Amino acid sequence: MFNPSPDSPVAEPHLGRSVSIDRAAELLNVSRRTIYNRIRDGRLQTIRTLCGSQRVLVESLHSLGFRPQPFSSTSAALIEARPARS
Q1: How far is Cα 42 from Cα 32, in angstroms, rounded to an integer?
Q2: How sure is the predictor about 76, in pLDDT bands with cuts at 50, 70 and 90?
Q3: How many structural domains is the chain composed of?
Q4: What is the structure's pLDDT at 84?
Q5: Residue 79: per-residue pLDDT
Q6: Do residues 77 and 4 make contact, with C-beta atoms less than 8 angstroms apart?
Q7: In terms of residue numbers, what domain contains 47?
Q8: In a domain, 47, yes or no
Q9: 17: closest CA among 68, 64, 54, 55?
Q10: CA dist., res. 24 & res. 61, Å (int)
């Protein structure tokens, strides 16, 4: 388990250009249905991946009030380090 020392800065996880529908719902603290409704209404912009998945542009989340919050040490303690793939 990841246990940062009190003196070490805790980095915020980097959000890329887009996020999944589930992640967008989590970041805005709304349901998946609300995300789909906001996409339909044009309040959220999306892109399609080569596989056809729909992803929400992070820039459009900002227009709806999403502001990244720094991780607290409590949140960071819940993140487990994953072993490297071989």
Answers
A1: 15
A2: very low
A3: 1
A4: 56
A5: 45
A6: yes
A7: 18-67
A8: yes
A9: 55
A10: 8
Mean pLDDT, rounded, of the chain = 75
3 state SS for the chain: CCCCCCCCCCCCCCCCCEECHHHHHHHHCCCHHHHHHHHHCCCCCEEECCCCCEEEEHHHHHHCCCCCCCCCHHHHHCCCCCCCCC
Over 50: is that where the pLDDT of 74 sits?
Answer: no
Give the integer Cα–Cα distance in Å for 39 and 28: 13
Instruction: Tell me how far apart the alpha carbons of residues 82 and 39 are, in angstroms, rounded to a whole number.
Output: 33
Q: Which amino acid is at 45?
A: Q
Residue 33 inside a domain? The answer is yes
Both structure tokens of 70: 């720094």
